[in-house]
Design a protein that fits this description.
This protein has a single domain (5-229), classed as Metallo-beta-lactamase, Chain A (4-Layer Sandwich). Helices cover 26% and strands 25% of the residues. It is built from seven helices and 14 strands. It has helices at 44-54, 72-75, 78-84, 94-100, 112-120, 189-200, 219-229; strands at 5-8, 11-15, 24-30, 33-37, 62-66, 89-93, 130-132, 137-138, 141-145, 154-158, 163-167, 170-171, 178-179, 206-209. The strands form three sheets. A seven-stranded mixed sheet has the order 1-2-3-4-5-6-7. Strand 4 (33-37), helix 1 and strand 5 (62-66) form a beta-alpha-beta unit. The longest helix has 12 residues, at 189-200. It is globular and about 45 Å long.
Amino acid sequence: MARPERVAPGVYRVDAVGLSNSISVLLVEGDDGWTLVDTGVGGSPRRIREALISLGGRPEDLKRVYLTHHHIDHVGGLPEVRGWAPGAEVVASEHEAMIVSGERNPDRSSGAVFRLANRLMNLPTVPVDRVVDEGENVAGFRVLRTPGHTLGHTSLLRDEDGLLFTGDAFGAMVSRVKVGGLKAACTDPPLAKRSAEKILAEDFDTVVMTHGKPIHAGARRRLKEAADRCDYV
């Protein structure tokens, strides 16, 4: 397994699957232990656990799991992660928490292929311990409401150094960066575009996306180009 990539002080990008930069999750080191941002797919927890150990942590040092949204490539590994870190607090926005906990149905993607795939995939049902909203702090990151990819989607921004984790508000799922990764994957594409424009109003320097390589140079320009190309209506 590839060693976790340090993207900023105390923040490491982990490949949740074998293909590099295909699905990324974050491990964030804090004074009270480690925070995991998203959990990848069903086979990802072993890789995440090995990454944590390689960084000097132990499974019991994982104190919280933050979920940007409920799609299977973000929550698929949650049950197994809770299996080896049963004390970890699960955190999400209210809308996403209701879906992850089984209180409401998943959002519908706008594209027919993605809608079919979502129906065929059984999302895990796990209780969410804490609901957060815009502006709250999680492991040193400020929560940004960025709906559109899903209706409760959130991104995370660490103001002290301008580190932005977009989740799927932006993504390079095929080649170049696009708003929402792909239009067809978004529940509400026009709303995803508005969230992209909202992100561009923030102060950031480094961008990590779930899908695609981190952007260390020209991050704002790359995201603005994606937003300018976006024709979601």
